[in-house]
Amino acid sequence: MRAVVLPGIRQALVVEDDFPEPTLPEGKGEVIEITACGVCHSDLHVVDGDFPSPLPLVLGHEVTGVHPELGPVLLYAPWGCGACPQCADGDEMICANSSEAGLFTNGGYCDRMWVPDRKYLAPLDGLDPITAAPLACGGLTAYRAVDHGRTTLAPMRRQGRVLLIGVGGLGQYAIRYLQLLTDAKVIALDLAEDKRSRALALGADEAIGPDEDIAPCDLIIDFIGSDVTLATAAGAVARKGLVIVVGLGGGQTNFGLGKVPPEARFMTSFWGTR
């Protein structure tokens, strides 16, 4: 079968026409025919050697495909060990021994791929397989961050203020989720004017650049995670507010009493559950 293989760090992808067909180890698992596979920024981290991914590797974890019995399906790519406390709680994406498709085991840039269990396949129910491919990655990641944030917004006796730092794909999902699930005022912050315009078109109440003043915000979701954006978040979070870091920008910020407003909290959010 055909597969697109990353042979080594920062090397060009190679299209192989005779890549080995997936097999069922000890008769376990499923094989799906790939329909579509998106490109995630995590794929670029693998290319750059930021993750301890085994190479060569078939990338791609934003996958839709066809299962011989289930029909069109969406792949959930974080596959946990099934034996740790996190897996027992349903949080496979933070399993210390997880094996994410396309990041640590062969993924979806190929004709067919192996999936360890049918539970990782969700029927598409009529969704377009191309536009749906990122839902279990970008869509799920943004949803989990918003869902974490709702615990801060829900008890408020006023309209909350939410700042989204970085409104690319994840940030745009977050705008829509916040509209559907909260009554908060949504402020989108981005360097790029076209992304700010897109954020307004999707329903953000305001769209600002990084040099503009920001009134204190009850919930801040940082989809970049750099030193600069974390400093922005620390400076904009309200008393008793929550900062959720999603982006893999590798940044750091000072945190502690006197460093941030009273009872402000910082946390990370990673991927999402099935």
From TrEMBL:
For this protein, the record's Gene3D superfamilies field holds: Medium-chain alcohol dehydrogenases, catalytic domain, NAD(P)-binding Rossmann-like Domain
Q: Which UniProt keywords apply?
A: Metal-binding, Oxidoreductase, Zinc
Q: Identify the GO cellular component terms for this protein.
A: cytoplasm
User: Zinc: present as a keyword of the record?
Assistant: yes
A Pfam family annotated for this chain is ADH_N
The cofactors it requires, by name, are: Zn(2+)
What are the residue boundaries of the Alcohol dehydrogenase-like C-terminal domain, all occurrences included?
Answer: 169-272
List, alphabetically, the InterPro entries matched: ADH-like_C (IPR013149), ADH-like_N (IPR013154), GroES-like_sf (IPR011032), NAD(P)-bd_dom_sf (IPR036291)
> From the UniProt record, which GO molecular function terms apply?
alcohol dehydrogenase (NAD+) activity; metal ion binding
User: Where is each Alcohol dehydrogenase-like N-terminal domain found?
Assistant: 31-122
Family per UniProt?
A: Belongs to the zinc-containing alcohol dehydrogenase family.
PANTHER family the record matches: ALCOHOL DEHYDROGENASE 1-RELATED, VACUOLAR PROTEIN SORTING-ASSOCIATED PROTEIN 11
Under which name does UniProt file this protein? Answer: Enoyl reductase (ER) domain-containing protein
Species:
marine metagenome
